[in-house]
Design goal:
Blueprint (H helix, E strand, L loop, with lengths): L3 H16 L23 H17 L4 H20 L8 H19 L4 H19 L7 H24 L7 E3 L9 E4 L2 E4 L3 E6 L2 H8 L9 E7 L6 E7 L3 E6 H6 L2 E9 L4 H5 L3 H15 L18 H10 L10 E2 L3 H9 L6 E2 L11 E7 L2 H22 L11 H16 L12 H32 L5 H16 L1
Antiparallel strand pairs: 1-11, 2-3, 4-5, 4-8, 5-6, 6-7, 8-11, 9-10
Helix pairs in contact: 1-14, 2-4, 3-4, 3-5, 4-6, 5-6, 7-13, 10-11, 12-13, 13-15, 13-16, 14-15, 15-16
């Protein structure tokens, strides 16, 4: 007769075998029709700009004030001309504007006396571009590419200059204080209103994937919707987190969570829906706040913005406004590269035309009220971006998020424990809506990104010491690519 110990051992062994059975890889949905990654195709320009920076830096800044003054005047004159009437995305003055702003970058990066004016000028350029985009078709490819080049390119140029002289950086760029009738409160020296959107970039590796992992790589990974109590002035931020779903926090709690950058956006006061009802943004925020207080709203890993049953961060704002009659996200993100789609499928994403946080910056219905950028955080942001860009190149070449088979049984047990916790109103180690295998794939991604970031940081330190200045972004990508390739050998 078989002893109880032997039977128990056999049962445990069978349990481990069953728990270790490989998870079937999820199917990878096709790319959205007609979608394709945006390509700058201007590597020679970036290298030329760096060459100009080195030349000005070597020669000193004696002649730079004259060159900067002429450049600032040229760009400002172009902006005056563009602001005077509606222009098409194909207007050649927009090419001149982009070229003129880029040309100023190396001189400002070498001579920080012009940095504050350069940052301020970028804010005006953004405002003029967004005003013009009201008359463009957000889903027309030339229009989208033009707006992306102007807004993303301008920010990239400014930040390269800021990172060369962090002590001279302008942490707060005040945008347009768009009129609003909704309750307000002051946060970090800026008056924010109920219905405003806080668009940020988190410090977690997954934040880089959210910001960069689409056809138009962006700068933001998270959206929170502001509610201001009209009686007390108390600020609440409604946001969706992978770990817990939709949650409510205070302004202090929101800011305590690591942010590598932060921007406040507000609906234009002249939108027909707001002209008819100026309190619409407040009602939208109040409605989603009430829903979050009355029910558990799970996180939407599928990124299906058309299903309000579960919400990812962008959906919190879009659903709230949609229910009040205002459709945000006039342009949707697409994800067409096979490597990114494969990785995202492994962590539960099923929809590859969706609402990304970075899209909000390009929505002509919204204005930028303020933007905060800290130089130390920007360095981390740029490093994480470069590492992620290099990792995604590897994904396109077939690199998978493989995990050791022996981690699957404990992960499945942890998932069972998490399911029980959620059933009783809590949350466990594996988020609701994420499978055990997805959680392991996610952990592999995070571990790889952090290990590569550490290697690239060491290479950055060495490069900075040898050339005498911090490497520009294109060099960061080169360093990250080398580190990624070395890891694969």
């Amino acid at each position: 007769m078989t002893s109880p110990l032997v039977r128990l051992t056999a049962a445990l062994a069978l349990g481990v075998v069953l728990l270790a059975l490989p998870a079937k890889r999820p199917p990878v949905p096709p790319a959205p029709p007609g979608a394709a990654p945006f390509e700058w195709n201007q590597d020679s320009l970036w290298r030329a700009l760096e060459g100009r920076f080195v030349a000005v830096r070597t020669a000193g800044c004696v002649d730079a004030p004259v060159e900067m003054s002429l450049g600032f005047t040229t760009v400002s004159t172009l902006l005056d001309s563009l602001a005077a009437s509606d222009v098409a995305p194909s207007d050649p003055r927009l090419d001149s504007l982009e070229a003129g702003f880029f040309a100023l970058g190396p001189v400002v990066a070498a001579c920080p006396a012009g940095l504050r004016e350069y940052v301020t000028l970028s804010g005006r350029l953004r405002e003029v571009a967004k005003d013009q985009s009201q008359h463009w078709d957000a889903n027309d490819l030339p229009s989208r590419q033009r707006l992306y080049r102007l807004l993303y390119g301008t920010r990239a140029a400014v930040e390269e200059a800021m990172l060369q002289h962090p002590d001279s950086a302008l942490p707060l760029l005040v945008g347009r204080d768009e009129p609003s009738a909704t309750p307000s409160a002051e946060v970090l020296g800026v008056r924010i209103h109920s219905g405003d959107m806080l668009v940020s970039r988190g410090g977690y590796p997954t934040s880089a994937l959210i910001a960069r992992g689409n056809d138009y790589p962006g700068n933001f990974s998270h959206v929170g919707l502001v509610y201001v109590d009209s009686a007390t002035g108390e600020v609440s931020v409604i946001e969706a987190h992978i770990e817990v779903g939709v949650a409510i926090t205070t302004a202090e709690g929101y800011l305590a969570d690591k942010k590598l950058r932060l921007m406040v956006m507000r609906p234009r006061a002249d939108l027909p829906a707001l002209v008819a009802d100026p309190m619409l943004p407040h009602r939208a925020a109040a409605a989603i706040l009430a829903r979050a207080r009355s029910e558990h709203i799970p996180y939407d890993f599928a990124m299906d913005y058309s299903d309000p049953g579960a919400l990812f961060c962008s959906e919190v704002a879009s659903t709230a406004y949609h229910d009040e009659g205002l459709t945000l996200w006039m342009g949707l993100s697409t994800i067409s590269r096979l490597g990114i789609r494969t990785w995202l499928s492994e962590v539960g994403v099923k929809h590859f035309e969706t609402q990304e946080p970075s899209d909000l910056e390009y929505d002509p219905q919204l204005v930028v009220v303020a933007e905060w950028r800290d130089p130390a955080d920007l360095r981390q942001d740029h490093l994480d971006n470069a590492v992620l860009d290099a990792m995604l190149e590897g994904a396109d070449q077939g690199v998978e998020l493989d995990y050791p088979w022996y981690k699957l049984p404990p992960a499945r047990l942890a998932k069972g424990y998490s399911w029980v916790q959620v059933a009783f109103g809590g949350h466990g180690p594996i988020p609701e809506g994420m499978s055990a295998s997805s959680a392991l794939s996610h952990d592999v991604f995070v571990t790889r990104q952090r290990a590569l970031a550490a290697k690239v940081q060491a290479a950055v330190d060495s490069t900075t010491a040898s050339q005498g200045y911090p490497p520009f972004y294109w060099t960061l990508v080169d360093l990250a690519t080398r580190a990624t390739q070395a890891d694969s050998l």
